[in-house]
Amino acid sequence: MRMYDLIMKKRNGGTLTKEEIEYMVSGFTSGQIPDYQMSAMMMAIYFVGMDREETLYLTMAMAHSGDMLDLSKIDGIKVDKHSTGGVGDKTSLTLTPMVAACGIKVAKMSGRGLGHTGGTIDKLESFEGFSTEISEEQFTANVNKIGIAIMGQTADLAPADKKLYGLRDVTATVDNMSLIASSIMSKKLASGADAIVLDVKTGSGAFMKEEADAFDLAKEMVELGKNAGRKAVAVISDMDQPLGYAVGNALEVKEAIETLKGNGPDDFLELCLTLGSYMVELGGMAKDEKEARKMLEQTIADGSALNKLAEFIEAQGGSKEAVFNTDLLPQAGFIDKIPAPRAGYVEKIACDEIGICSLMLGGGRETKESEIDLAVGLVLEKKVGDYVEEGETLAFLHGNDKQKMEAAGERFIKAYSFTDAPVEKGPFIKGIIR
Ligand code: URA
Q1: Exactly one of 80, 122, 161, 238 is catalytic; which is it?
Q2: pLDDT class for 368, splitting at 50, 70, 90?
Q3: What is the Cα–Cα distance from 330 to 323, expressed in whole angstroms?
Q4: Claim to verify: residue 343 and residue 312 sit in the same structural domain
Q5: Can you tell me whether residue 133 is helix, strand or coil?
Q6: For the whole model, what pTM was predicted?
Q7: Residue 307 is part of which domain span?
Q8: Is 162 among the catalytic positions?
Q9: 319 is catalytic
Q10: Does any domain span residue 362?
Q11: Is residue 191 flagged as an active site residue?
């Protein structure tokens, strides 16, 4: 087999066979197929597309390109959750202890921030001493003992995707449905869970800006999960404005903890209850979502989810005191108010711009090597549909560098648009794919 022939076949509209896709993935992972040939193939796939079978073969080949985690030493059904990425998306911090408090085994792989979106690992590192660099043995032991463990993606897990993602990132071939679906699902399959709940975001802060594309991606991923013998459900949720009010690592941790104490924003709580009810149902702990939702609400009411978070943080080396006293989390040196430039209803928020403001304050990475400032970010006071008087506070900027705060503040104002008439909001949960 020759890579040249495969590129030409795809370029001319052909369908790649299982053997051809396996050859291409293993050759690329080992370094025998150079980046330039794989780049040409990615561009051919970008234009010609892949059918369901090709996407499945690509997913399976990438999942098997490195270690497949063996979770068989964990009793019961292991459940994982994945978000396609958003702004203010602190869901895993609140959702996983809620679900674990219902008796579900949560064995989760998480990542760091990417572009304007944040990552769970960075957020968790707001707890002093916390680490996701734990061995497979400790991971398994923690899930068995306390019902929850979160691990970073190791170099050995789906290395083909790791390499390919880097290449797609610089060759304008990221936003292709089959490539995104196979990238996400290869990692989820390699990390071993029996059931996967997917949170597919849509809107200005998401990867899939159009709702129809988000539905297609959700269907594709659920199908891939099923074909690989896993249970999978996707929830399509709104990312046309930040989730909740807080954006920025430690600020989001604080909001996640407040939610576990019963003081959470409506949209964020709704997302946790929706995703959680599918996790509890797929995990076999409830007969339907209604029963699961009640169980989840109870974990907030009786404090068991908050205690579970503390147990989890401590088990991975973190200081659990901050769970009960959020003043111990990293705090910014300055907090500035951003006043509304005019009176009116908030019509729209360019959500990706809010993510960039947090990045500009130092809350995300500009380059792979950047150190992030866990304390900085934004706390919104007004969201879509809210009325605001001129000069009233739109948001608080938390920063450690006045120059950066000024630049982020200017950009923030431009992300908001206002109108004189009341604004109709669409549903927050857009749909479910089972
Ligand atoms: N997240 C991934 O892991 N892969 C993609 O291709 C897009 C988002």
Answers
A1: 161
A2: low
A3: 12
A4: no
A5: coil
A6: 0.92
A7: 79-326
A8: no
A9: no
A10: yes
A11: no
